[in-house]
Amino acid sequence: MKPRVAVAYSGGRDSTALLHATLMASAEQGVEVVALHVHHGLSAHADAWLAHCQAQCAKWARRGLPIAFAAERLMYKPGKGESIEAWARQARYRALRGMALAHEASLVLLAHHRRDQAETFVLQALRGAGMAGLSGMPREVERDGITWVRPWLDVSREEVQAYVKRHRLKHIDDDSNTDTRFARNRLRHEVWPALVGAFPQAEASLSSAADWAQEAQVCLAELAAMDLQAVRAGKGLSVLSLLALSDARRSNVLRAWLKAVTGRVASAALVSRLIDELPAGASASWPIDDGTLRKYRGVLSHATASPVKASPGQREQKLSIKRAGVHKLPGWHGHLVVERVREGGVPLAWLAHAELREREGGEQFQAGFNRPPRSLKKQFQAAGVPQWERAGPLVYSGGQLVFVPGLGLDARVIGLPGQPQVTLRWEAGYTPA
Ligand SMILES: Nc1ncnc2c1ncn2[C@@H]1O[C@H](COP(=O)(O)OP(=O)(O)OP(=O)(O)O)[C@@H](O)[C@H]1O
């Protein structure tokens, strides 16, 4: 059997160009190409795109080029509240992997180019990402039996455009690429022209910044591996050895360890809580998604949760909120969503040592600036908040009630314009991954 390479082919300009270039090179080298198309079912044009891709591949095959075509229709839709972009990305990679393996291709080429990389860097920076996020997309990565390669990550968008023109390639234009509800499209259409106007080298510089971040990320991972060796104590970590490290190394090694034991990236809130609270007391515990972190006899360890539901005793009582994001509170069966606002929010500084409490009765809540504080019960009734929306933690800071699920922020904690501030929202039940 001839060696086979797969190309992820959306039918758009970039992947059309990459598929064509791969096909030309493969024909010379006796390699077979399989074009993989994912039908997301999100656009009214999705059927037409699939038909276009299939027809294009059939045309090339008729010319004697070594190409096969495979497509998969996604049969499920994003969940309520789920980001469409994130869902589509995850589902797409799963489908591409399945099709590649079915066609015995372990190498899948993606058509991301230098501008995609530069955009990714900016989007990650705007989310306040750390080194891993700023690293952008890898040129080559092995995952789940597939080697994903982006051969054009150093190729500019203009070069891809010129290739398409030179070979008169037909491609589709995805209408969702202009939908400015998506962050990447807003960046592309509203920010990028001004950015490149002012800084013509932006694409090259930003993608080179992503390269530096990739290198730094490798160093951080190597440092974490070394530090892990040094602080390990049985199945856990020695708190004393952890405390001997600098704050930065301690959080770096904690992140690496948490990822290893939970299988997920730890939230910034959890890591900063551990940094703050690890030194105090002989024993402590921190509930996390699927278990608990415990400090006992000088060792920090992780225990997986038993399948029983969290009881009131397991509800988190403290939360350190230092930035916007989603703070999962499995003990309360939900999560707090923290969003930056310009005004009408609580100063972020207030929430660094927030307390989470049950309703006890007698709490007073002030709904507006010139309204008197009233009992929570009356406020819930006045605002018509149904019982199930009242569940969740009351958030306090320094003994002052800050936030009540179903009612929002207490007027007494609203910050002055100009202060960094946030709003809170409680979402019960479903917790995003
Ligand atoms: N529906 C799809 N089916 C197969 N591969 C896809 C699909 N969507 C994206 N890809 C792959 O992922 C790459 C990046 O996709 P993305 O949508 O971010 O970029 P794009 O600029 O729209 O690319 P293109 O111009 O090729 O559509 C594509 O170039 C392609 O290789």
From TrEMBL:
SMART domains: TilS_C. GO terms for molecular function: ATP binding; tRNA(Ile)-lysidine synthase activity. GO terms for biological process: tRNA modification. ATP binds at residues 10-15. Residues 354-426 form the Lysidine-tRNA(Ile) synthetase C-terminal domain. It catalyses: cytidine(34) in tRNA(Ile2) + L-lysine + ATP = lysidine(34) in tRNA(Ile2) + AMP + diphosphate + H(+). Pfam families: ATP_bind_3, TilS, TilS_C. InterPro entries: Lysidine-tRNA-synth_C (IPR012796), Rossmann-like_a/b/a_fold (IPR014729), TilS/TtcA_N (IPR011063), tRNA_Ile_lys_synt (IPR012094), tRNA_Ile_lys_synt_N (IPR012795), tRNA_Ile_lys_synt_subst-bd (IPR015262). Keywords: ATP-binding, Cytoplasm, Ligase, Nucleotide-binding, tRNA processing. SUPFAM superfamilies: Adenine nucleotide alpha hydrolases-like, MesJ substrate recognition domain-like, PheT/TilS domain. Belongs to the tRNA(Ile)-lysidine synthase family. PANTHER family: TRNA(ILE)-LYSIDINE SYNTHASE-RELATED. Ligates lysine onto the cytidine present at position 34 of the AUA codon-specific tRNA(Ile) that contains the anticodon CAU, in an ATP-dependent manner. Cytidine is converted to lysidine, thus changing the amino acid specificity of the tRNA from methionine to isoleucine. The N-terminal region contains the highly conserved SGGXDS motif, predicted to be a P-loop motif involved in ATP binding. This is tRNA(Ile)-lysidine synthase. It comes from Piscinibacter terrae.
